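Below is how a single chain appears once it has passed through the pipeline. First comes the sequence as given, then the structure the pipeline wrote out for it. We keep one example in the README because the format questions we get most often are answered faster by looking than by reading.
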Amino acid sequence: MDRHSSARSVAYLVLLGALFSLALPGGATAASVRGKIVQFDAERNSLLLDGDRPARGRGAWLQLSPATVIEWGGRPASSSDLTPGRRVAVTWSERDGVKVVTQVRVTDPAPRPARRPSPAAPPVAPPATPQPPQPAPPATPTARTAGEFEVTGILQRVARSERDLVVIGPGAGGPQTETSGHVAADVKVSRDGGPTTYETLKEGEKALVRFVRREGRREVVVIQIGAAPATTAAPGVERPWVSRARTVLRIVDWGLGQMERR
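Resulting structure:
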């Protein structure tokens, strides 16, 4: 081995050591890497990954476990989707000297779900007997959509052409969980309380991201950078400080009246 090859090998080992030195709560360490799948061994439940630069060309076997989370395009996936040639982002953690892959996310564009045929129209029922009008029920506040949740963290990936967003923040995998989703066409983006566009976002910015499930896919519907827009009181609703100010003025007016009578 020549001197240059030896130097490259040492640099590669230093890089791996730096990746494994990222601390997590409880004495554990974690690292993540992106690359292309070279081979998947179903019997051993492990995959051979060719990482991106500077580790490109140096394949490494990574061990999966029954608790490993596999995602593709914001949907749950399985080990059968880990075929050679597909690009993935792998996150693993090390506790007590054991390295376990916690998440595998396929970054290639996900296939569109097949459309289900429309059900047959039900038979037309005979006209119902007219009923007297009933009073309308009182209006209730609109509830949050089922399956909707928010993540506050750092934007790790902002893909403009693929409209794929990845944010790192608290989640099921811990405080450094990667949560990804497809950016909806009607996404609402704001910066410091004012509207902006998805194209202005930058990786590394802190953001509040709201996800919602639509037709089985996780989509991004709200992205908020900086301070939230100021809210205004609803018309006809008096703020609490206004009521307190009115009470103080009435007390002062009563005191002045007493002084005039003396």
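The helical segments are 3-20, 240-261.

See the next section for the split statistics.
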